[in-house]
């Protein structure tokens, strides 16, 4: 069997753990621990079966090419309050890994209270075109969105790199 790692990298308290747990248990978790115990699933890509291991890392942890050699990491998802800074930093630390910028709370775009609170601070929810531009600006392979609360897009966000191998690795 072939083995692959998917590492979700980002700031603390931005949804990395919730993204992974929501995918594994197929619902929004009632309790969200502060970090995700590594887990794995088997996936089929073409005629091959892979054991895909999930990991998460805070960007503040010491991530490096030595921590995740290029033959072990297929992709790093970036979830961050400051995605441009984190995505470009991750790309610099892991130059042979495809970086994907991920928005994990798209359900909040339609949440009136969230939009009003953001507006009071002079902000608006990030649009798809803004996310795509950010991905281009930081050299990420792709921008993708999901809602860990409603599960909209969660599976495709995590599985897309494996089912669409055309995503370039740097």
UniProtKB/TrEMBL annotation:
The keyword GTP-binding applies. It comes from the Eukaryota. One of its GO terms (biological process) is small GTPase-mediated signal transduction. It holds the Pfam family Ras. SMART domains: RAS, RHO. GO terms for molecular function: GTP binding; GTPase activity. The keyword Cell membrane does not apply. Keywords: GTP-binding, Nucleotide-binding. InterPro entries: P-loop_NTPase, Small_GTPase, Small_GTPase_Rho. This is GTP binding protein Cdc42.
């Amino acid at each position: 069997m072939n083995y692959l790692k998917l590492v979700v990298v980002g700031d603390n308290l931005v949804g990395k753990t919730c993204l992974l747990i929501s995918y594994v248990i197929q619902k929004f978790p009632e309790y969200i621990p502060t970090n995700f115990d590594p887990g794995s699933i088997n996936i089929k890509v073409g005629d091959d079966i892979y054991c895909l291991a999930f990991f998460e890392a805070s960007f503040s942890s010491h991530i490096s090419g030595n921590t995740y050699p290029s033959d072990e990491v297929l992709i790093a998802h970036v979830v961050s309050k400051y995605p441009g800074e984190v995505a470009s930093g991750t790309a610099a630390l892991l130059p042979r890994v495809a970086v994907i910028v991920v928005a994990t709370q798209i359900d909040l775009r339609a949440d009136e209270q969230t939009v009003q609170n953001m507006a009071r601070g002079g902000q608006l929810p990030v649009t798809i075109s803004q996310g795509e531009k950010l991905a281009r600006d930081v050299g990420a392979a792709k921008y993708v969105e999901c809602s860990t609360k409603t599960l909209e897009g969660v599976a495709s966000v995590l599985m897309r790199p494996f089912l669409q191998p055309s995503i370039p690795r740097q």
